[in-house]
Amino acid sequence: MFIDHHEKHLIGFRSALGTVISPIVYLADIPQEFFSWGGESMVSRSYLRQENQRLNDEAIILKAQLQKHIALQAENARLRNLLGTQNDTLERRLLAEIIQIDDDPFRLDFVINKGYLDEVYIGQTVIDENGVVGQVVTVFATTSIVLMISDASHAIPVRVARNNVRAIAAGSGLIDQLFLKNITLTTDIVEGDIIVSSGLGQKFPVGYPVAKVTSVVRDSSKAYASIQVKPIAKLERLSSVLLVWTHKATVED
Question: Quick one: which of 7, 21, 70, 220 is 20 to 30 A from 36 by CA?
């Protein structure tokens, strides 16, 4: 009876003590819960800000690329009109496979599986999905040899897409490098400029991407600037190319 009597009193005491202590324990846990929630919230907000900034940056870049593409299209259309060419000038194209690459380190050319039976002609423009690859230099019945634009013996009339400055892009002998010839020190050409075919000489059609300016060095002790450009076509990874016909091209060419 004594134990039972005291246990009843203890139960009441423990109940009363729990009632008093529970709010204190709850209040003691609040700072930890607050900082835990606050830390997660700050991390989440920081991540969202970074992600939002990244998406905004990507959107700006994509808009700039779109504007440049539209500007280039408009400029190419204007040049076609000035040069008196027709909109259907470049409609005829033929896919060709590369069947052999020259292993001569001093000559950058390759053989394709199309020849004069396919109406391929000497001087014909060859492109890939990115830009100008080169031109046909030898034609056989079912095959042809294409000289790349970066070959040391090759040159192509070009212009700067940004400001229409004209130049000649000559091959360096290195597959991924050309240079612009005889550019004066004051000529407005800068790194990042896109170089396209000008159409002068009527060997290459107008407006195809050729190269991107990678280096501009102006030395006052020299008459001309040293300007290096990199082909836009993926010359080192070609497996197939496109042959392009112009309205003036014939098999006899």
Answer: 21
In the chain, alpha helices (H): 2-82
SS3 of the chain: helix, strand, coil, percent, to 5: 35, 30, 35
C-alpha closest to that of 242 among 103, 123, 93, 101: 93
Our CA angle for 121, 236, 94, nearest 5°, is 30
Q: Report the amino acid identity of residue 72.
A: L
Question: Which pairs count as long-range contacts for 19-28, CB under 8 Å and 24+ apart, including other chains?
Answer: none
pLDDT tens by residue, 110-147: 999 999 999 999 999 999 988 999 999 999 999 999 99
Closest residue by Cα to residue 208 from 128, 146, 152, 112: 128
